[in-house]
């Protein structure tokens, strides 16, 4: 899968991309990252990428020309792919969106900066708008990295463990069960006996129950939407009664 990022801060991407498991996946040819500096697509002496807003008011607005030129010149040689603007006004990112985007061969991510971007970019260049949550950051670079990370780890071969992403919180519609590793006793705190039993049937039942309980207690909103068997629904009802 290929990611094309358009940004005014290209240097912010490599520290994370090069230090993480994503770099290894790129070396193995599973991922390609192309980070483009929007400033390289300006033609004036000062390489201007922003200007004051029409109608007055504070802040600066990203100019349309360099953004259009950057995106169009890079994507003109590629088959059509979504151009996603990172903005707090977009649809809120979640695991379902990550899974959908992970089916595509390429996505382009446009990082906003300053107070905003010229509306014509939004109307005539961008095909999707995504927010990573209801808070405002100084730019779309961290949100773009979050999208890349969440999507890339879903691609076959990117995680060391081929089933690595299967039990993730949210992947199955539930939060993930608790994990333990050695030592079996740490500061007097033990490990649930079931996990030491070697009985794989019991262990997987325990994990499913723990995932259900965790989701019930922490995210009842997502439990409502999860697909549960009759037995699981009864387990939840019994649990609610007990509490
Ligand atoms: N840019 C600034 N804040 C953002 C957010 N919450 N999500 C996506 N892009 C942003």
Describe the structure.
The chain has 243 residues and is an alpha/beta fold. The chain has 2 domains: 151 residues, Alpha/beta knot (3-Layer(aba) Sandwich); 74 residues, Trp Operon Repressor, Chain A (Orthogonal Bundle), CATH 1.10.1270. The chain has 10 helices and 8 strands. The strands form 2 sheets. It has a 5-stranded parallel β-sheet with strand order 2-1-6-5-8. It has a 3-stranded mixed β-sheet with strand order 3-4-7. Helix 4 links the parallel strand 5 and strand 6. The protein starts with a strand and ends with a helix.
User: What is the number of domains?
Assistant: 2
Rounded radius of gyration (Å) = 23 Å
Low-confidence stretches: none
CATH-scheme architecture of the largest domain: 3-Layer(aba) Sandwich
H and E string: EHHEEEHEHEEHEHHHHH
**Coarse shape:** elongated
Q: What's the CATH first level of the largest domain?
A: Alpha Beta
Figure out the total of helices: 10
- Bound ligand species: adenine
Distance between the termini: 47 Å
Oligomeric form: single chain
Helical residue percent?
25-40%
Biggest beta-sheet profile: 5 strands, parallel
Assign the CATH superfamily of the largest domain: SPOUT methyltransferase, trefoil knot domain
Strand order in the largest sheet: 2-1-6-5-8
The counted number of beta strands is 8
Question: Within the CATH hierarchy, at the fold level, what is the topology of the largest domain?
Answer: Alpha/beta knot
Average of per-residue pLDDT values: 95
- Indicate the structural class: alpha/beta
Q: DSSP strand (E) fraction? A: 15-25%
């Amino acid at each position: 899968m290929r990611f094309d990022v358009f940004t005014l801060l290209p240097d912010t991407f490599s520290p994370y991309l090069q230090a993480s498991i994503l770099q290894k996946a790129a070396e193995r040819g599973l991922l390609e990252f192309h980070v483009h500096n929007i400033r390289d697509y300006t033609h004036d002496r000062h390489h201007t990428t922003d200007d004051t807003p029409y109608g007055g008011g504070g802040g600066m607005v990203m100019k349309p020309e360099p953004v259009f030129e950057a995106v169009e010149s890079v994507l003109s040689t590629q088959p059509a792919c979504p151009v996603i603007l990172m903005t707090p006004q977009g649809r809120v990112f979640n695991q379902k969106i990550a899974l959908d985007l992970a089916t595509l061969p390429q996505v382009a991510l446009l990082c906003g900066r300053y107070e905003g971007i010229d509306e014509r970019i939004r109307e005539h260049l961008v095909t999707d708008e995504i927010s990573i949550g209801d808070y405002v950051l100084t730019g779309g670079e961290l949100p773009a990295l979050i999208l890349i990370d969440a999507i890339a780890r879903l691609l076959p071969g990117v995680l060391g463990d081929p089933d690595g992403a299967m039990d993730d919180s949210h992947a199955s519609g539930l939060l993930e069960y608790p994990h333990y590793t050695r030592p079996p006793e740490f500061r007097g705190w033990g490990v649930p006996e079931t996990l030491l039993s070697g009985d794989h049937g019991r262990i997987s039942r325990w994990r499913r129950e723990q995932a259900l309980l965790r989701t019930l207690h922490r995210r009842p909103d997502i439990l409502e939407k999860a697909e549960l068997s009759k037995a699981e629904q009864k387990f939840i009802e019994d649990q609610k009664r007990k509490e």
